[in-house]
Amino acid sequence: QNIIYKLTGVKDLYLSQLKTYGDLDRDPLERVISIVYYSLIRVDVFKKIDLKKHNAKWFALNEIPEIILDHKQMINDAISKLREIAKTEPLGFRLLPKLFTLPQLQNLYECLYGIEFDSRNFRKKILSSGFLKKTDKKDKTSSKKGAYLFSFIESNELDEKEKKETNIKDVFQF
């Protein structure tokens, strides 16, 4: 957590250990063991990070530059892990602001999986999940009509019947 704070200036981010890398030939100079973690940062928190101040750089998943040793493998392993997590739980809890539009949610999953989804099918599937709550607020930044804002329903807000009927695996099987 301290390293992430030093790189971003943000405290209390989601952090999870990914894997330990220790192959003998990872580094041609000496034996190096790396314990890799990944962190998820909500988009509204990300926008507040002063990249110049913290000398941090961000790259789109499809625009990662050449990097040293097996670090590209580490990134690919983290992406694979996130894709697996996204199949079993609503990853947007950790990446989207508290209120978001369905196009924003769809964009999140399209970026993660690197594919485009049919908007109508995505909307139908995600709304049937029981994990979203529609608000009466609208985001009018992209059109005059505006898009309704949604929030995720916390698991403790679901009653026992909803918990049994809702299977996140059915929704996020992309």
Question: For the largest beta sheet, what order do the strands appear in spatially?
Answer: 1-2
- Can you count the beta strands? 4
Query: What is the percent of helical residues?
Result: 25-40%
Strand content: 15-25%
Distance between the termini: 32 Å
Coarse shape:
elongated
What is the overall number of helices?
9
Largest sheet, described in full? 2 strands, antiparallel
How would you characterize this protein structure?
The two termini are 32 Å apart. The protein has helices spanning 2-8, 43-46, 51-54, 71-88, 92-95, 102-113, 119-127, 160-165, 168-171, and strands at residues 14-21, 34-40, 132-139, 147-152. A two-stranded antiparallel sheet has the order 1-2. The chain has a two-stranded antiparallel ribbon with strand order 3-4. The protein has 174 residues and is α+β, with helices and mostly antiparallel strands. A hairpin with a 7-residue loop joins β3 and β4 (147-152).
